[in-house]
Amino acid sequence: MRWKYGTFSIFAAGSGLALGLLAVLLMPLMVWGKGSQMTVTVGSAGADVIGTDNVAIQKAVDRVAAAGGGTVVIKAGTYLLVDSVRLASHIRLRGEGVEKTLLKKAPGVQCRLKLDADYGEAIATVENASGFASGMGVTILDKVSPGGWTPSVRTIIKVEGNTLHFDRFLGMDYSVENQGQVFNTFPLIAGFNVEDVQVEDLSVDGSRAGSGILDGCQAAGIYFFHSQRVTVRRCLAHDYPGDGISLQFVEDPVVENCEARGNAYLGIHLGTGALRAVVRDCRAHDNEQDGLFLCWRVQHARYERNQSWNNGRDGISLGHKDTDNVFIGNSCFGNAHAGVYFRNEVAANAASRNTFQENTIADNGRPGAPGYGIRIDGETRDLKILSNNFRSRRVEGVVVQPVGIYIGPKAGGIVANQNLFQGDLRKPIVDESPDAHNQSTPPSGQ
């Protein structure tokens, strides 16, 4: 008889020793198989874990993780979070629907530093620590290190007088002179270095009013970092003091049938080397900046059938090394600047080799600030803009999106064919590029 395990073979002739060795080798698989069937419920009553806060949800997550994986069901109700729910690998976190299961951030608490908080310290002394408590998630920053990867997102483990003790040391220097402060903004649901994780059928409310704003590099309503095969499905992220959904340094993520609205920064934000993402059937609207934002090195992604509207800047924004992506069947309308914006980057860093096909791009811009259907800035090259529908109308007597496609003076290799231009568009295509390789068929629909 012969069994194969990985690259090893075990030969046996009924030997007890061989069978025992086989059992040892297969044990991890048997544990995962058993653990993956485990389900633990959380709720105010009639659940395996009783409670309506992050502590109760975390207890359920940890129980399932200890068994090797499975499902945590958050029953209908409102759950008040003072710190992140941190997921583990092979976990499915599932609510009972966006209208039923609501995870809500605790009200905002913030205070300025009293003493400088230095790199390597695990403390910060503030002017008044009342309102802060052990177990609370917080962010430490100053005006020199206000965003990106420079703030420190930590958990308070102890409060002594006006000194807050954290679970990990600080990643930067934060000074009183530069208006350093601490405030309780943190991801509501977070996964760090995890794989095969799903978050489904729930809402996260960021309690934006009174909370300090932090961009999605380190925090969002739903946030994953350095993870593989994560799925966020049928979730609503709203009124967060930053991004709604942010996935950073991830491989093969899926964001499906989600909504991000009313957030203080971006709607759905992928970046920092996000590879092979699928974002489909999502809705991003009424966010302060962009609806769908591709940050650094989002590559080989597919965005399909998404809607991005009424955002404070762009419907879809691409930039630093965001290459080889496909956008098909999306709608971008009523955004303040452009339906689709290619940011100003040098050739080595430009969002080149992207395809936009069969999208609807309409009415982007404002009466006092005319907008664009697609605006291509920087040294962006080799784009395919095919079979899209551009429309514009008058708002307060002004054509808000007078230009369908704008090709900047440094862009090149742009192919714009078989696009439909309708309504009050003044100029279907404005091409300021000297590149003779640009191609476009005559505008149709005028």
**Radius of gyration, whole Å:** 25 Å
Biggest sheet character: 33 strands, parallel
Helix content: under 10%
CATH superfamily of the largest domain: Single-stranded right-handed beta-helix, Pectin lyase-like
Per CATH, the class of the largest domain reads: Mainly Beta
The CATH architecture designation of the largest domain is 3 Solenoid
| Average of pLDDT | 92
The parts where pLDDT drops under 50 for at least 5 residues are 1-35
Shape: globular
Q: N- to C-terminal separation?
A: 75 Å
CATH third-level topology of the largest domain: Pectate Lyase C-like
Your description of this structure?
The chain is mainly β and 446 residues long. The protein has two helices and 45 strands. 46% of the residues are buried.
Q: What attributes characterize this protein structure?
A:
single chain, 446 residues, mainly beta, Pectate Lyase C-like, Elongation Factor Tu (Ef-tu), domain 3, 3 domains, 33-stranded parallel β-sheet, six-stranded antiparallel β-sheet, 2 helices, 45 strands, 7% helix, disordered N terminus
Concise synopsis of the structure shown:
Helix content is about 5%, strand content about 45%. By secondary structure, it is mainly beta.
Write the layout of secondary structure elements.
Layout lengths: L1 E4 L2 E4 L4 H20 L2 E6 L5 E2 L3 H13 L3 E5 L2 E5 L3 E3 L3 E4 L6 E5 L4 E3 L10 E3 L11 E5 L10 E9 L2 E4 L14 E3 L5 E4 L2 E11 L14 E19 L4 E9 L2 E3 L2 E3 L6 E4 L6 E3 L2 E3 L6 E3 L7 E3 L2 E3 L4 E5 L7 E3 L2 E3 L4 E5 L12 E3 L2 E3 L2 E2 L2 E2 L1 E5 L4 E6 L2 E4 L1 E2 L2 E2 L3 E5 L4 E6 L2 E4 L3 E5 L7 E2 L6
Parallel strand pairs: 3-4, 3-5, 5-8, 6-9, 7-16, 8-17, 9-17, 16-18, 17-18, 18-19, 18-20, 18-21, 19-22, 20-23, 21-24, 22-25, 23-26, 24-27, 25-28, 26-29, 27-30, 28-31, 29-32, 30-33, 31-36, 32-37, 33-38, 36-41, 37-42, 38-43, 41-44, 42-45
Antiparallel strand pairs: 1-2, 10-15, 11-14, 12-13, 12-15, 13-14, 34-35, 39-40
